Amino acid sequence: MSEIAERTQAADDAPLLEVKNLKKYFVVGKSFFGKPNAFLKAVDGISFRLEKGKTLGIVGESGCGKSTMGRTILRLYDQTDGEVYFHGRKISDLSNRAFDKLRPNMQMIFQDPYASLSPRLTVGEIIGESALQHKLITKSEYRDYVLGVMKTCGLQPHYFERYPHEFSGGQRQRICIARALALKPELVVCDEPVSALDVSIQAQIINMLKELRASLGLTYIFISHDLSVVKHISDDVGVMYLGSMVEYGSKERVFDHTLHPYTRALFSAVPVPNPHVKMNRILLKGDIPSPVNPPKGCKFHTRCENCMEVCEHVPPVYKEVESGHFCACHLYNTAEENAAFAEQIALERAALASAEKNGHVAQA
Amino acid sequence: MAKTENEKKHYISRSESKRISKENSKAIRYYEKRKKRKVAPEEYTTEMKDEKNVVEFDDLHTYFFSDAGTVKAVNGVSFSIPAGSTVGVVGESGCGKSVTSLSLMQLVQAPSGQIVGGSIRFRASLFKRDARGRKIPVYETETNESGETVFKLDAKGKKVVKKNALGGNVYEMEDRVVDIAKMPAEAMRSIRGREISMIFQEPMTSLNPVFTIGNQLDEVGYLHIEGITKQQVKEHSIEMLRLVGIADPEGVYKKFPHELSGGMRQRVMIAIALLCNPKLIVADEPTTALDVTIQAQILDLLREIKKKINGSIMLITHDLGVVAEMADYVVVMYAGKVIETGTAEDIFDHPLHPYTIGLQKSKPTVDAEVDSLYCIPGFVPNPINMPNYCYFRDRCERCREQCSGEYPAFVQVTETHSVACYLYREKNAAPEKEEKDV
After folding, report:
1. pLDDT tens-digit map of B87-129
2. A160, A204, A276: residue with CB nearest B375
3. All domains in chain B, ordered by first residue
């Protein structure tokens, strides 16, 4: 165990995880000579801090880059740009070998419990494999250790020698959680851990995740598209749209004092199990635009009901609107910013007009 | 490690498995033969219990004859869908809600899945047939010089068939109540897609990837509207795409499914379902695969369309929020049986069955803050060896001595609300004394 303590030794006041301007671009097109010339900006400049023992909920539509963000933080994808600090130590420029030493501290629970368990390994092997690999335990301790982890996750000891296909979705998800917890991680990225499960099983898994957080002092990044689940489990909430964080703050602030129009539309779209509530719903028109070719200016302006002129030209700045509550929207610009943006638009227009004129001259 | 009790229960000996497969093949042969035989329409014509209903399920049994034994997926389901209303069917996966809807369409995966008993009564408008089984067309008439009404003749001297607004031939129709459970597969074809149509769960997998959207829409038109020309079918298909809110219907008509987003594909599925103006739309988890914002769009669309075509919707979902928003009546299913029915207000304001209460408590909501969610203990019983007492007894916190008796019968608690549970008595809204903790 001393090794773990060593690994995590760093400045105490630093947050457990800090992400600064994280970017992940996928190459979708190459020029004739193999130089990449088209990118899918899955994660485009995300920053947040996560204190130990807290849970950050990430919500957004499918394709907005939530999962990619989680995977990029854990280096399952190589990041394009940005910095990630773990306990105040920069980990984004570590070599793969150096990062491997850190891996037990950060684990992931994947979305689909039917696809993320190897059908050829027994439950015991699935859970114990990684602990053995990282030399947290010796072979002689293996069985007792795994049984202990299984017990924490509500799995019965005689499951040890069974195979994943013998279990229902809820049980499989417990195995996935046990696999992640076997390494005694501090940070767990939960990528839609309950969306493939039934309502009554969902409740079991969510309760278990909450209990484990309290008893083991875990920190979660909880990625989900189900707003009610995110509200239930999170302390902080981040809302993503097309690869960017559009709103971030404590759960109470984001849910009760919503700033961004997209967040408002997203919340109003959630159906409430009460037939008497007739909601005045903000219906978003159309689909989420393609991340390969996102709209100019604010990415959300094509579907926004509060769209202004400035939104179509200048991307908004992600800033702290109220203390601890971040938002990227032109609605919350100061007067100076508005003036600056107006100038920028005027300049752009002038440049466009002159270009057009030159074009005419050339044609003539 | 020693085999546990549970494992022993699942073990099937060789002789036993032989016996099961022998029985299965016998049963399957019987039901398959019954589906293919030719019968007079009178044999499957029945009467509705209530004239206001479009569909009445009456003690429906749909079984799957599997190698491990007979799975009673739908085991005595009875409820009805009134005309012009939306009925929501809720339950967890495996409770038989999808199989109920597939039975209604006669689309249960044969040969292992078969409708074994009960009836599904449906008010259909069918083509009138002459003695040789042909449809009887309606001919165009005109008034001649002497004031008599005579048939209009074309250049060749043949009678001209009347055309409807779409350009299809008009035939003589008759209203008839049919029992879909007894209908042969051949006769079902004139109902499926024309009178009842279905929106499937996954728009990604239920559209054919090798045909264009236009192709798949037109197919329905050709099949069900006789005498329609190619141009008219195309116009009608594009009109339907426009109706479901697709901005560029001509463009989408030429596209392939993979070129569309999930929401657009689901819109196309709805367009296909609407093509023949069905009386009843069966929507099997229409929004489960979609995002919340797209889900809101699709639900809005379904509501609008229901108003426009003046039909009924059978909405199958596991999301209580969606049901609360859409449905007028709610049917709660558990392990192949209906356990509670009522109006949406009944079910959400005064849920009676412990399972319905548990289901509602186990879902976190955006409005309410709770420390830990309620979870229903235990698991759904094994569908092959269903117990003969209440299926929910082992998971129920309020079970009593009676519950070990036979399966509880339906209790009519109020006019609209009924429940299958021993905790309640006829026409007595309050449970005997236990307080409901909400």
Report:
1. 999 988 888 888 999 999 999 887 889 999 899 999 888 888 8
2. A204
3. 196-277 (3.40.50.300)
Close Cβ partners of A82 (under 8 Å, ≥ 6 residues apart): A19, A20, A21, A22, A23, A45, A46, A92
Residue B254's pLDDT band (cuts 50, 70, 90):
very high
How far is residue B27 from each of residues A86, B117, B386, measured CA to CA in Å?
A: 64, 13, 20
A275/chain B closest Cα distance in angstroms: 5
Q: Which of B294, B319, B344 sits opposite A271 (nearest CB)?
A: B319
Q: Name the residue among B1, B261, B372 with its Cβ closest to that of A158.
A: B1
* Inter-chain touch A287–B263, beta carbons under 8 Å: yes
**Encoding tokens for residue A66?**
């939530």
A117 touches chain B (CB under 8 A): no
Say what angle helices B262-274 and B213-224 make with each other, to 10 degrees.
10
Q: How far apart are CA A61 and CA B291, in angstroms?
A: 6
Residue A143 phi, psi dihedral angles, 5° rounding: -65, -45
Record: contact A281-B296, CB cut-off 8 A:
yes
Q: Report the mean per-residue pLDDT for chain B.
A: 85
Q: Do A287 and B318 touch (CB under 8 A)?
A: no
CA A259, CA A248: separation in Å to the nearest integer?
Answer: 10
Q: Which residue of A has its CA nearest to B245?
A: A286
Contact A213, A53 (CB under 8 A): yes
Closest residue in B to A197 (Cα) is B93
Predicted ipTM of the assembly: 0.79
Say how far apart CA B346 and CA B352 lie, in whole Å: 9
Task: Report whether B63 contacts B69 (CB < 8 A).
Answer: no
- Choose among B409, B405, B402: nearest CA to B388: B405
Determine the residue type at B88.
G
